[in-house]
Write a structure and sequence with these properties.
It is a single chain. The protein has 398 residues and is α/β, with parallel strands linked by helices. It folds into 2 domains: 7-173 and 369-383, Glycogen Phosphorylase B (Rossmann fold, 3-Layer(aba) Sandwich), CATH 3.40.50.2000; 176-365, Glycogen Phosphorylase B (Rossmann fold, 3-Layer(aba) Sandwich), CATH 3.40.50.2000. Helix content is 38%, strand content 15%. It is built from 13 helices and 13 strands. The strands form 2 sheets. A 7-stranded parallel β-sheet has the order 3-2-1-4-5-6-7. Strands 10-9-8-11-12-13 form a 6-stranded parallel β-sheet, with helices on both faces. Residues 18-177 form the Glycosyltransferase subfamily 4-like N-terminal domain. It comes from Paraburkholderia ultramafica. InterPro entries: Glyco_trans_1, Glyco_trans_4-like_N, GlycosylTfrase_MSMEG0565.
């Protein structure tokens, strides 16, 4: 090594704006700015570009046409990622780093074939699947890795205690400048285009998903409307590889039953995927941001909202309780619509009493992509040294 730049390959599952993809791009940028040679690999359907520009080299793995089922989709993307890496000198990289199960399996198969020496994997969170193929792919993507990283202490403990895998915690960062609390020229036009005239506006990022607890948020919003009749709920983003259609239909049916129309200028606005600059603009426009998820790896949206100067309502569960407190957020019990509605009302009343002058800046200062890159580099170099296996015994695995 001796001060020479590392050749680092980062792998992500999509070109669309999801938390893990944002993490990969921002980590890549920070590693690049630290003087490393970084290439980012991502599967792409129909030549779709990465949603955000990067100073790193981007390799798009063409995804062949496939059926609509999730198993076929995952298998097709694994094969696409393998082919892209093989075409770009797989063995020439010092570090191969998967951020998801799709790329983790691509690297595991290449390692088994003797093409690469090994790889590291970041686990953001794990999902519950009913299909045996998906369960095994998810397991193999971390079990076959030489080292596992997690974005929160919560998931580091889970990986050790529930899955028998040793892991190291490497926190996310937040680009404060990107979300700074000053209205940009395009903010007003974007909000007009989406039909946002509500007073107040409650924003949730991530689309309509069971993991995001959108149905419970809907129930809470209906309660909020009893005291804030002109309120709007904005559900932004939602580009996902998983099938959320059944849950979305339940959401639509329940909204109709509650008498809450969905559409442009309506009480509920569902935006779908948005341009990259839209989310910071929406966070600056929102009067409160809701993050009442049932399961998250870290919850980067919380830091982004606070960087935009917007109060946040957050599930009082891990990992949030590991780095937040009542000075920087309004807590809610995620399974209780009345609790969520009460927290929204607190957030809308004097900004929830959140200390934006002292506590929020102190919190944001703890999370920088520069520091995340430094931590990654320390772990990368440790993994390049001769070592004993770090895997814990697997007796707890089913």
């Amino acid at each position: 090594m001796n001060g020479m730049p590392l050749r680092i390959a980062l792998f992500t599952h999509s070109v669309n704006p999801r938390g893990g993809v944002v993490h990969t791009l921002e980590l890549g940028r920070a590693l690049y700015e630290a003087g490393q040679d970084v290439t980012i690999f991502a599967p792409s359907v129909g030549g779709a570009p990465m949603f955000r520009e990067s100073p790193c080299r981007i390799v798009l793995a063409p995804v062949a046409a496939h059926g609509d089922d999730t198993v076929t989709m995952v298998h097709t993307r694994i094969e696409a990622m393998k082919s892209a890496l093989l075409a770009n000198g797989a063995a020439s990289f010092d570090i191969l780093h998967a951020q998801d199960s799709i790329s983790g399996n691509a690297l595991a198969e290449l390692r088994e074939a003797g093409v690469i020496r090994g790889f590291v994997r970041t686990v953001h969170h794990l999902d519950g699947f009913g299909d045996a193929h998906l369960i095994e792919w998810q397991r193999r993507a971390y079990a076959d890795a030489d080292a596992v990283f997690c974005v929160s202490e919560t998931w580091t403990r889970k990986m050790r205690n529930e899955f028998g895998t040793a892991a190291s915690t490497v926190n996310n960062g937040v680009d404060i400048g990107r979300f700074r609390a000053s209205r940009e020229a395009g903010d007003v036009s974007l909000c007009a285009r989406l039909g946002l005239g509500g007073k107040p506006v409650v924003l949730a990022v991530g689309g309509i998903e069971e993991r995001k607890n959108t149905l419970q948020l809907l129930e809470a919003f209906a309660l909020l409307k009893q005291t804030h009749g002109a309120a709007q709920l904005v559900l932004a983003g939602g580009a996902s590889l998983l099938d959320h259609d059944a849950y979305t239909r339940r959401f639509m049916a329940r909204a109709a039953k509650l008498g809450l129309p969905i559409g442009h200028g309506k009480p509920i606005v569902v935006t779908g995927a948005l341009d990259d600059e839209a989310i910071p603009a929406l966070m600056r426009r929102a009067d409160a941001v809701s993050m009442v998820s049932l399961r998250e790896g870290f919850g980067l949206v919380v830091l982004e909202a606070l960087a935009a100067g917007t109060p946040v309502v957050v599930s009082r569960i891990e990992p949030f309780t590991g780095y937040l407190d009542e000075r920087v957020c309004c807590w809610a019990q995620p399974h209780d619509a009345h609790s969520i509605a009460g927290a929204l009302r607190r957030a809308l009343d004097e900004r929830g009493g959140i200390d934006f002058d002292s506590a929020v800046p102190a919190l944001l200062a703890q999370f920088s992509w520069r520091e995340s890159a430094r931590r990654h580099l320390d772990l990368y170099r440790r993994e390049m040294q001769p070592r004993q296996p770090s895997r814990l015994p697997h007796e707890s695995l089913i």
